[in-house]
């Protein structure tokens, strides 16, 4: 499809928390914007339209048939991603999708094929790919400066309400962390051949529905490396609602991401400050989601390539599903 000229016009479908992340970014730009808002909850779309500009769509069908719209941002519950993503692609609109890409690998492949056939962008927002601290770790490992990965660790701890929607059946609950973590493991460490997971149901909603609000996963990486990740939604002591830390130990050195986004590098090729065992590196910028919808616009225009492909998003989904299976059945799951 030929890249459109002039200002790009997007529809925001789903006006919850993620919409409120993208909205101020779009409102600050003059080369793209959110022209149409849609939500099933009365008043939510009108509130954001009044705050950031644009109009309220009368229906999903009205969005699909609006030829002035270039793309759709799908910020809906997990089980609706495939239905809305496919409809938008069939209507000739580029799609930016919150994770996961879909509920099943088959749905993911169908959407990917539809986007490829139509020449449309399908950008799945694995948001950590946009964090400058995580990009720096990836660049260091990919450069070979610290050698080949041996062991990777990544932890994040959140505070979420006991009635958080994702703890309901049909959603990914804490396995949503594995959607991010599995992608991190592949990005920093390599392809995964098997996973072993343990999950806990601690809060009342998780216990009621048999979903996990804490999950720890061990990954076997091709070539012999290992990775371990933990996502916990039951921590009550997180500053700013989350803790994140990670590290990659390699054959010649290591790189670590601390809770405060400091990058610590141990490398034989660098001389630390006197008395220190490691070099402290600064990311190119802060960790913020401002780049996501801007990147979507750039990809539509052809000035950028998606930082994560639909195939990468499919792999992340497969890892999350394998982790869920492993935790529920208390066994190691080998990836096909």
State the name of the first-level CATH class of the largest domain: Alpha Beta
What would you call the structural class?
alpha/beta
Distance between the termini: 34 Å
Low-pLDDT runs of 5+ residues are none
**Widest sheet, order of strands:** 14-13-12-11-7-10-9-8-15
CA-atom Rg in angstroms: 20 Å
The averaged pLDDT comes out at 90
The total count of helices amounts to 10
The largest sheet, given as strand count, sense and whether it forms a barrel, is: 9 strands, mixed
- Looking at the overall shape, the CATH architecture of the largest domain is 2-Layer Sandwich
| Beta-strand residue percentage | 25-35%
- In CATH terms, what is the fold-level topology of the largest domain? Dihydrodipicolinate Reductase, domain 2
CATH superfamily of the largest domain: Dihydrodipicolinate Reductase, domain 2
Describe this structure in words.
The protein is built from 10 helices and 15 strands. By secondary structure, the chain is of the alpha/beta class. It folds into 2 domains: 8-125, Rossmann fold (3-Layer(aba) Sandwich), CATH 3.40.50.720; 129-287 and 317-334, Dihydrodipicolinate Reductase, domain 2 (2-Layer Sandwich), CATH 3.30.360. The strands form 2 sheets. Strands 14-13-12-11-7-10-9-8-15 form a 9-stranded mixed beta sheet. A 6-stranded parallel beta sheet has the order 3-2-1-4-5-6, sandwiched between helices. The longest helix is centred in the C-terminal third of the chain and has 20 residues, at 310-329. It is globular and about 60 Å long.
């Amino acid at each position: 499809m030929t890249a459109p000229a002039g200002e790009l016009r997007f529809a925001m479908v789903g006006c919850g928390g993620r919409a409120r992340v993208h909205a101020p970014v779009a409102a600050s730009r003059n080369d793209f914007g959110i022209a149409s808002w849609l939500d099933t909850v009365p008043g939510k779309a009108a509130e954001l339209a009044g705050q950031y500009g644009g109009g309220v769509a009368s229906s999903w069908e009205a969005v699909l048939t609006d030829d002035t719209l270039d793309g759709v941002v799908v910020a809906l519950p997990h089980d609706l991603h495939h239905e809305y993503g496919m409809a938008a692609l069939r209507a000739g609109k580029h799609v930016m999708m919150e994770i996961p890409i879909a509920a099943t690998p088959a749905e993911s492949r169908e959407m990917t094929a539809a986007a490829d056939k139509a020449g449309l962008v399908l950008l799945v927002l694995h948001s950590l790919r946009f964090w400058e601290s995580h990009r720096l770790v990836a660049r260091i490992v990919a450069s070979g400066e610290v050698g080949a990965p041996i062991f990777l660790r990544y932890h994040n701890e959140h505070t979420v309400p006991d009635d958080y929607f994702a703890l309901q059946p049909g959603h990914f609950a804490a396995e949503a962390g594995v959607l991010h973590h599995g992608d991190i493991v592949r990005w920093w460490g390599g392809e995964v051949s098997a996973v072993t997971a343990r999950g806990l149901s601690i809060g009342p909603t998780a216990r009621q529905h048999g979903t996990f609000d804490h999950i720890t996963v061990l990954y076997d990486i091709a070539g012999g490396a290992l990775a371990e990740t933990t996502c916990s939604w039951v921590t009550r002591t997180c500053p700013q609602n989350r803790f994140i830390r990670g590290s990659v130990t390699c054959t010649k050195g290591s790189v670590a991401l601390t809770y405060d986004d400091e990058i610590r590098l141990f490398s034989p090729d660098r001389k630390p400050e006197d008395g220190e065992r490691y070099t402290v590196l600064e990311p190119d910028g802060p960790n913020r989601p401002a780049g996501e919808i801007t990147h979507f616009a750039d990809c539509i225009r052809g000035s950028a390539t998606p930082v994560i492909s639909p195939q990468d998003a499919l792999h992340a989904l497969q890892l999350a599903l394998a982790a869920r299976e492993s935790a529920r059945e208390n066994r190691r799951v080998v990836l096909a």
